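[09:14] KT: can someone run the structure on this one? pasting the chain below
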Amino acid sequence: MNTAGGTIADRPAGVAPPARALPAGATRRPDTRARRIERAVLLAITGLPLLGAAAGVVLLGSGALGFADHATFAVLYVVTGLGITLGYHRLLAHRAFRTGPALRALLAIAGAMAVQGPALRWVADHRRHHGFTDHDGDPHSPWTPAPAGGRGARGLWHAHVGWFFDDEKTAVRRFAPDLIRDPVVARVDRLYPVWMLLTLALPGAIGFLGDGAPGAVRGIVWGGLTRVFVGQHVTWSINSIGHAFGTRRFATPDQSRNNRLLAWLALGEGWHNNHHAFPRAAIHGMSPGEIDPSGLVLRALERLGLVHDLHRPTPESREQRAIR
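[09:31] RB: done, structure tokens below
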């Protein structure tokens, strides 16, 4: 699991990555035509959920949404959220636990249905982020590029969504070669357009079964587009708000923060300082008050024998890195 600054597995958590420019081959610059296509796709992926969410707010205000609509939203939010937290993030990006090919595929598909990018691209960007956190080379830090970064609007916008439109793209072959060789993940990645379609078709079909065409429209708008919009911006808030606002429990060479509200909304990912102190930890909540819904699901799967080899930092290592 190579990154530009070493390997996620062998670099001690809390040790600063080298504050240097990315080495040759770590990024790629698509040609003009490819850049235009990528930007059009990105605008669609970010813009359509925004328009859908606006329509969803109208539906909500009109009182047209019923219990089934809200239940569809909630269930798919949790399923696709776990696809990001357990699938894309803790399993594929960090190898924080191990599981079989069937569950690995299901988690990757659920992550793809969150419409935050294909698995290989998402993981490559995230590993690059950990290799250069809040230094030059981090693709989505609010603190770079200096002096424009930080907690100002420009830095937060860049970290939240602006970085998508940078011309320099993370080289997947450099940061995620193991996943390219994984036939299960590679196949899910190739079928990404199918999962994007499914994430709208599924709530539409559920709505249609309950209330015909009007139910299908509500399902697509509320359980589909609005849910995708909320999930996207909760995850992207980890990149922006999670590096600017909150508390720091552990000494890390970056600006990562624990944010209780994000922890709930992002199913445990808001304990972001904990994560940056111990990147391979399977459970991000590290005290009784730090509720980690994804960690609770992971523990349940472990008891069922569906996952194993969960990485857990020792009490001694947590004590060693705690801020006094």
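[09:33] KT: thanks! The two ends are 32 Å apart (CA to CA).
[09:34] RB: yep, looked fine to me
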